[in-house]
Amino acid sequence: MEKALTSTDFKFPGQTAVYHGKVRDVYTINDNLLVMVATDRISAFDVILPKGIPYKGQALNQIAATFLDATADEVPNWKIAVPDPMVTVGYRCEPVKLEVIVRGYIAGSAWRDYQAGQHSICGITLPEGLKEWQKFDTPIITPTTKADEGHDLNISRSEAIAQGLVTEEQFDTMARYAFTLFRKGTEMAAEKGLILVDTKYEFGVLDGKIVLMDEIHTPDSSRYIYADGYEERFRNGEPQRQLSKEFVRQWLMEHDFMGKAGQKVPEMTDEFVQSVSDRYIELYEHITGHPFVKADETHLLDRIEKNVLDCLNTLNP
Questions:
Q1: Do 70 and 188 meet the contact criterion of CB atoms below 8 Å apart?
Q2: Around Cβ 259, how many Cβ atoms within 10 Å?
Q3: Residue 147 has pLDDT above 70, yes or no
Q4: pLDDT > 60? residue 150
Q5: Model confidence, pTM
Q6: Of 20, 57, 18, the residue nearest 220 (C-alpha)
Q7: How confident is the model at residue 220, as a pLDDT?
Q8: Is 180 exposed, middle or buried (0-12, 13-18, 19+ CB in 10 A)?
């Protein structure tokens, strides 16, 4: 098996804090910059799985960079540079405690809830008689709380404002930006024969203004399916061909794991790990239109450290 980066413990000059998330390690530099390392960790149902996925971090980081660059003229974002295939350096923002999920189709958790009889989500009443993978007349926004631990929870616009998570102006700005990003992501996916089903965005405040932060339109934050055969599969009630992390969730559910108390993560064989790695590379190539070039991982941590230091020396001479 190829190497997978599952943990980091860097000590960069000017480092004031470090946060180890589910899949990313984020280093704060001089309280105004962030070094975000996209590790090869993988999570599902808010649980970090026991094995890393080779090249997953590189694929996610480079996909996100592609979309951040493609949308920067319409939606301001946090990115400054990508000094390493697995690293993005950007401005430190004050995170908004809300994740903005845009859904163009009913699938995943929204479909599972709908099947269970829940026909209202985040204050939005859904039509009766929907079928899995059905396209909404217009995309909808279904925000969730951003939990430091445990599961994120659905929340409506009015609830988010009432709880002081955002102001009306902030929510409406995020919603406008989210629809803009989703439209752009949909167009870019369509050019490559893909459908962007749903995705989530995270925003922060920088100099008093809302900016996009974190990753966007990656298989960790988005659900893609192939456009070819979509209509026929939908008419026949057949599963769609997906390019997303949903297949990992499906595999876990088939092995009786959904992150609930007492459940045990099934064994991740080398073959399964390799198949997940291949899926991430496949999505990278589909969505960017470029062949995936595997970065040299011989001295992975040394490589990342050197590239980040060179970048920081340029930004903070």
A1: yes
A2: 15
A3: no
A4: no
A5: 0.90
A6: 57
A7: 84
A8: middle
